[in-house]
Structure prediction request, 322 residues.
Amino acid sequence: MVLSREDLLEAYRRMKTIREFEERVHVEFAKGGIPGFVHLYAGEEASAAGVCMHLTDEDKIASTHRGHGHCIAKGVEVNGMMAEIFGKRTGTCRGKGGSMHIADLDTGMLGANGIVGGGPPLVCGAALAAKFQGKGAVAVAFFGDGASNQGTTFESLNLASVWKLPAIFVAENNGYAEATGARFSVACEDISTRAAGFGMPGITVDGHDFFAVHEAMRVAVERARSGGGPSLVEVKLDRFYGHFEGDNQNYRAPDEVKNVREKKDCLKRFITRVTQDHNISPDEILAIDDEVLRLIEEAVLLARGALDPLPEDLLTDVYIKY
Prediction:
């Protein structure tokens, strides 16, 4: 698939927004301004962007505890996300979800999820609804290498195949389920090979390469939209930070993160390729960088100044009112 200049600049904008959002959350959390737990997506941007570039607001995604990148790539508004992480009334979920439970149904974001393997069953439901509605929508479940071993994930893969659902399962394999290396917990080298057991195609791609993710997702989405059923896409990548903010990462090899940042940074790889092969100028990249930094600064200032939830807010948005 040939990507236009506009597509490439939009892809970079999404990845850069995720990166700067996460780097700033890292700083703000260290200052003590953010309550609860935070799990950062920095380093994995090419996966979220490569997947979500194919999706519209009518398509649904279900995320993980590491969901900020998926939210941004799917189009969730950054100011609302930052306020949500700060626990403010102006947040996407009015300060009630926090980092691990951001949802925005208007953009098709079913929610980040603190339950490992919680997303795939939700996506089966969303994909079943899409199939009955017959409008060509798809549903995507993001999950990690740890969740790839969960019964919920296996059951969802099976159900999606049995019902021939327009679903795509994206396994973001960053090599660690919290602190446990995948080589100790995942019985196969490539998670994608498990697809054969459920009668669907599976593919493993380099998650540091936006173009590889984008192409694999193109094939999977076209298959789903045309009634061909589900696919499993494994994206192998690396996270820059620990499992959660405060994780000392003593389970990682010396200089592992340093080497990843220097040699596998998906943004650096993307910039090199588009400036060399796609006639994108360094000035265009810098203009997006400046725009994103202003956006993130504004989001933080607004979040800091926003009101906290009030006691009377406690029981609102708990039950659906028809």
